[in-house]
Amino acid sequence: MQADLPSPLPAPPSPSPADVKLPLPMRALLRLSTAIVVPPRAGAPAPGPAPEGGARPGDEAAPDRAGPRPSARTAARILAAALAASSASACMVGPDFQGATPPPVAAYTREGLRNPPTSDEDRRNGAVSQTFAQGRDVPGEWWRLFRSRALDSLVAEALARNPTLDAAQASLRAARATTEAQRGALFPQVGFGAQSSYNKAPGGDLQSPLNDNSLLYSLVTPQVTVSFAPDVFGGTRRALESQAAQEEGQRWQLEAAYLTLTSNVVAAAIQEAALRAQIAATEKVIQAQTDLLNLITKQSNAGQVAGADVVQQTALLAQSQQLLPPLQRALAQQRNLLTALAGRFPSEEVSQTFTLASLHLPRNLPVSLPSRLVEQRPDVKAAEAAVHAASAQVGVAVANRLPQFTISGAVGASATNFAALLNPAASLWTIAGAVAQPLFDGGTLFRRQQAAEETLVAAQAQYRATVIAAYQNVADALRALQSDGRAVAAANAAVSASRQSVELVRKQFGLGAVSSASLLITQSAYLQAVVTQAQAQANQYADTAALFQALGGGWWNRRDVKPARDPKDPAPFL
Question: What pLDDT, on a 0 to 100 scale, did the predictor assign at position 115?
Answer without folding.
Answer: 76
